[in-house]
């Protein structure tokens, strides 16, 4: 009895009887199991015999084979190929009907086919080319969508009854009113940080009073609209993309089209109009709380009176600063809503595609906001 865990002696599961002389007709009479468990040992045995005898012709007798599976059949096919490579005629003899069926499973053409090559990692040039093509496709898609959106907005001006005003109110509340607490807190803290950090430098020159001017100009001209736009892009832009993307997955957009409605006019226009109305108001709200944050630091830490802080802030700001910031906010709002809707309509597939396009909407929206803000900064510099 073998010990527990010991390997069975597979050499006793099969045997090979050789008939014939080396260099002449030789017969290998197989008996026992020609299967997966005997494959390594049997293969080594047959190859060594084939090399030793170098027969003029080879016959493999299967009469005494008690068990043959597909792996054993593959072994016999490989033996035939090896004999063929040596120029030795090969014959299978006395195979039972069942064994012949097993041998028929092996697809010889598939064995001769070239192995499938592993997919190679694309090189730097291929990656750059693929990214460029993807960018161009995305640019064409965005341009096409923006063109359709502009036509829908123009049509809404001349046909105001076609606009879903109830939906506009809903999105104004969701993108505007619900964002007030977090936007107010962020703006207040931003104003505090600006005032405190700038005071560390201005204190060296005895000019801490100008903290109010710095905070006011920074928040009104740049940070107010920019902070608002980034916050709305993260909250509402992603929500627009996820909402429309889910409708695309559920084929609700197709249903809207079949009913005769324009999906852009039905879904995108209310979101864009609501954003263009509410984002400028949110920007003013952010400017106010940012200035209040600076005022808190100025009064509590810098010994600046409230009257002096407010007076200096009013002196530093002009009507042009407010108007230009409101114009920027309107443009930012249009970009956020348009990109969010476009990415939503782009969804194809399932839940994973919704998540991918939602992330893309936020990233692309913030990127375009920064680019457009840079253009505004240069343009307004020459208009002042």
Description:
This protein has 384 residues and is of the alpha/beta class. The chain folds into 2 domains: 11-112, Transcription Regulator spoIIAA; 148-383, no CATH class. Helices cover 70% and strands 8% of the residues. It contains 13 helices and 4 strands. It has a 4-stranded mixed sheet, covered by helices on one side. A hairpin with a 5-residue loop joins strand 1 and strand 2 (25-34). The longest helix is centred in the middle third of the chain and has 39 residues, at 211-249. The chain starts with 13 loop residues before the first strand and ends with a helix. The model is unreliable at 1-8 (pLDDT under 50).
Structure at a glance:
This protein is of the alpha/beta class. It has helices spanning 39-53, 70-85, 97-105, 108-112, 124-158, 165-175, 180-202, 211-249, 252-258, 263-301, 306-316, 319-345, 351-383, and strands at 14-19, 25-34, 57-68, 90-93. It has two domains: 11-112, Transcription Regulator spoIIAA (2-Layer Sandwich); 148-383, no CATH class.
